[in-house]
Design brief:
Strand 1 and strand 2 form a beta hairpin. The chain is mostly helical. The N and C termini lie far apart (55 Å). The chain has a two-stranded antiparallel sheet. Helix 1 packs across helix 5. The chain contains 23 helices and two strands. The protein has a domain of 133 residues.
Length: 596
């Protein structure tokens, strides 16, 4: 919701003051909690936060008087009133209305002020991201900029002494940047042990980057606006439609609300289901459950254990909880939204048939599954089954006589199934990847290259792209003029986009492999391991044969760039660079050429 102001120059000045105040708030929290000891005296930092609180309240008052419509302003900022009332009750009543000592009252007061400041900074950051996406400029550039800012901010937080485990070496800049990029791009490649080298604060930072990077900070901005009852403008809806790859803007608000509710519900259900899997005290078990549930649904592949899930390969939760979380996260929210609508329609029709007999004579046609959903489900099932069968056969018959074959048939089948599921998106593993046969590693590279589905947190060329490319070849062999799937024709523009994405990914994969073979020449890595690492980074998967921690600085920088390209997509980056290019208004004469 955009608000009109009387004095635009004053409004621009307030935006600058807001940005500066928010930066000071962040710096004060970093100074307080990011180091072994506060950089300044605690009372000075708390005083700075009180000043920032006053500035935020004064900014709201000035904007209220500067707004053309006071009603419009209060509609957009109604949540400020309960926040300020709650803050006033806690600050004024601590120690007076609640039986507390002076020290306890001060702690409660500073905590309330800090919480208010955090809410303000998050609200302003999220709202700014949506406004920038809807500014009329290229929304993909806003998406890229949000990822870059998130990565740099996360790297800075991970470099703080408090983010490292006490007694261990502090994380260097390149390792912090690598970890922040891997978490934001939901990849899972690590150069530091997440569970051992990072403290709880560092692990929370990584988890936050995974959640924000998985859904996108612009989407969180729209969610935040909708939660506060702020309707999206037409420009904002169009921008969100572009970023979410939605087919229509008529229900973009419902789509964003569904993304938020579905994410919270699925991750919470996953965390509760995983609780009984871990050992230790209740706090540790809950943290492990929440961490791995979010990591699995966002297809991040980060684990608090240095061997991923190898030690838990016999746990039923791995296959009945983690695998569904990975699959749901890789299907894409548009597919989940379509399936949820179809399920709701079936339930509604059933209830009407049971309780309203007149409805039988005026029954509406049931909602049909969209072509996108059919393609995603079909290709996903095929890839899971194909990958599991191929890995099982290659591990059983291509391992050689020197490889230990003592594992049971059930373990081999479950291991092959899990690696087939996780290789396309997540990056967890229940077997040591370095001990797998070259044939199985090649299958994993193919699965990582395909990745998940459009609109999901996964990377790769996507399942729909693979289906379109294959059916294009089938159409050429059948001498059909159009690409057909499920008795529907696919537009020629979609075919061209699919071929472009595939060619760009192939070019990126070979370029990264070549670059890594140069930078890692002194390490003596095999070309197979290097290509596996490149495919894992480009597909934002996170599987590795064990070479990631031993990469040179140049190799780490290449992987960092590759993870960002894989998360955003080469076509997205190309679109950002060519956004202002105008299409040609002429065509050249055609001439026959021979191919094949």
């Amino acid at each position: 919701m955009r608000i009109s102001y009387k004095n635009n120059r004053l409004e621009r000045g307030l935006i600058g003051v807001n940005a500066l105040t928010a930066a000071v708030v962040v710096a004060s929290f970093v100074s307080l909690f990011g180091f072994d000891k506060p950089l300044l005296a605690a009372w000075i930092l708390y005083t700075i936060q009180v000043v920032c609180l006053v500035l935020f309240v004064a900014e709201k008052l000035v904007r209220l008087f500067n707004a053309v419509s006071k009603v419009e302003f209060w509609r957009a900022n109604w949540f400020e009133i309960p926040l300020l009332i709650g803050l006033g009750i806690v600050v004024g009543g601590a120690g007076r209305w609640f039986s507390m000592s002076g020290t306890e009252a001060a702690i409660i007061q500073y905590f309330a002020i800090g919480l208010y400041l955090i809410v303000q900074v998050i609200a302003k950051l999220c709202r700014t991201s949506v406004n920038l996406a809807a500014s009329g400029k290229n929304p993909t550039r806003t998406l890229i900029a949000s990822f870059v800012v998130l990565i740099i901010s996360g790297a800075g937080l991970l470099m703080l002494p408090a983010a490292s485990t006490p007694g261990r070496e502090h994380v260097s800049f390149i390792d912090a940047l690598f970890t922040a990029t891997s978490a934001t791009c939901v990849t899972g490649l690590i150069v530091k042990d997440t569970g051992q080298d990072f403290s709880v604060m560092g692990q929370v930072v990584i988890l936050t980057l995974i959640q924000l990077g998985g859904l996108g900070i612009v989407v969180f901005g729209a969610v935040f606006a909708l939660l506060l009852g702020q309707a999206l403008s037409v420009r904002e809806s169009v921008a969100m439609q572009d970023l979410l790859s939605a087919s229509t803007i008529s229900r973009i608000g419902n789509m964003i609300a569904f993304i938020f509710v579905a994410t919270i519900f699925i991750e919470a259900l996953g965390a509760v289901s995983l609780f009984g899997m871990w050992n230790g005290n209740i706090e540790h078990r809950w943290f492990c459950s929440v961490f791995h549930s979010i990591s699995a649904f966002c297809n991040a592949g980060f684990s608090l254990f240095n061997t991923s899930f190898i030690e838990y390969h016999r746990s039923w939760q791995i296959y009945s909880i983690v695998c569904p979380l990975i699959i749901l996260g890789g299907l894409g929210f548009s597919v989940l939204y379509d399936l949820a609508n179809i399920a709701a329609d079936r339930v509604k029709r059933f209830c009407k048939l049971c309780f309203n007999k007149q409805y039988r004579f005026a029954m509406e046609a049931p909602k049909r599954m969209r072509l996108q959903t059919k393609i995603v489900l079909t290709v996903s099932v095929f890839l899971i089954v194909f990958g599991a069968c191929a890995i099982f056969l290659f591990e059983r018959y291509a391992a050689g006589p020197d490889v230990d074959q003592k594992s049971s048939l059930v373990d081999r089948i479950s291991g092959a199934f899990f690696q087939s599921v996780t290789a396309r998106t997540a990056g967890f593993n229940t077997v040591d990847i370095s001990t797998m046969t070259p044939s199985s590693k090649f299958i994993l590279i193919l699965l990582m290259f395909v990745g998940g589905s459009p609109g999901s947190t996964a990377g790769g060329i996507k399942t729909v792209t693979l289906a379109v490319v294959i059916m294009t070849a089938v159409a050429a062999l059948r001498r059909r003029h159009e690409v057909e799937m499920f008795r529907r024709s696919v537009r020629i523009a979609v075919v061209g986009r699919a071929i472009t994405v595939t060619l760009l990914f192939v070019a990126a994969l070979f370029s990264v492999t070549l670059a890594l073979s140069v930078t890692e020449n002194s390490n003596g890595f095999t070309l197979s391991d290097i290509m596996f690492e490149a495919g894992s980074a480009l597909g934002t998967v996170g599987l590795t044969t064990g070479i990631t921690p031993f990469l040179t600085t140049g190799g780490k920088m290449i992987i960092i760039a590759t993870m960002l390209v894989g998360r955003l997509g080469p076509l997205t980056l190309l679109a950002a660079l060519t956004f202002n290019l105008k299409p040609a208004r002429y065509d050249y004469p055609d001439e026959a050429v021979i191919v094949g």
